[in-house]
Task: inverse folding
């Protein structure tokens, strides 16, 4: 069977400062993300038919899973997939470049310009009530779209491919920003690894 594992980070816990602090990274990555993985593996224990499926397969076909594990896979599998993408698309500020190439063209086509995209994304992240995520996705028509989801839901559940995300659960920002979610969202734009997002965009439109 395949056991899901915590993916390795490509930067140190303090590399995202001052935007995301070291202590938040240690707890968020090492505790919260690991817990989702542990609970996902526990839910799949003894379910031989499903243990070797990818996260994407599991979350795209939740209704086909045994009913008793659907909620656990949705919450914990979603938590694992969401956080894995989140760690991939952020990077130290010196590595965060502006969108370019096909991705920049697609952003301009969908939103008019990067500033309008950032405003729409900010709105999605700010207005997500309670816990959840803001997303830049490629929809079924191959177009870019900003959306948000509650809890640990992933856009793949709606047939969309996420290429950029922001965790707006309080555990993602409360140690540094307390109740100032808008300040956390604004900081996020300084650490987006647009090269990774661009690669994910090109993969999604193939």
Result:
């Amino acid at each position: 069977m395949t056991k899901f594992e915590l993916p390795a980070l490509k930067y140190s816990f303090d590399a995202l400062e001052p935007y995301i602090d070291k202590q938040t990274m240690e707890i968020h990555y090492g505790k919260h993300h690991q817990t989702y993985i542990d609970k996902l593996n526990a839910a799949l224990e003894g379910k031989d038919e499903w243990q070797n499926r990818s996260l994407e397969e599991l979350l795209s076909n939740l209704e086909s899973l045994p009913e008793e594990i659907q909620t656990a896979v949705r919450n914990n599998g979603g938590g694992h997939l969401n956080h894995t993408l989140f760690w991939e698309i952020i990077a130290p500020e010196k590595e965060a470049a502006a969108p370019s190439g096909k991705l920049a063209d697609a952003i301009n086509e969908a939103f008019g310009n990067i500033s309008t995209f950032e405003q729409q994304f900010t709105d999605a992240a700010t207005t997500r009530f309670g816990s959840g995520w803001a997303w830049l996705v490629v929809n079924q028509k191959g177009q870019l779209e900003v959306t948000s989801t509650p809890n640990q839901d992933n856009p793949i559940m709606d047939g969309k491919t996420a290429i950029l995300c922001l965790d707006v659960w309080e555990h993602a920002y409360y140690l540094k920003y307390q109740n100032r979610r808008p300040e956390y969202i604004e900081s996020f734009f300084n650490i987006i690894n647009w090269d990774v997002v661009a690669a994910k965009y090109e993969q999604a439109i193939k």
DSSP finds nine helices and three strands in the chain.
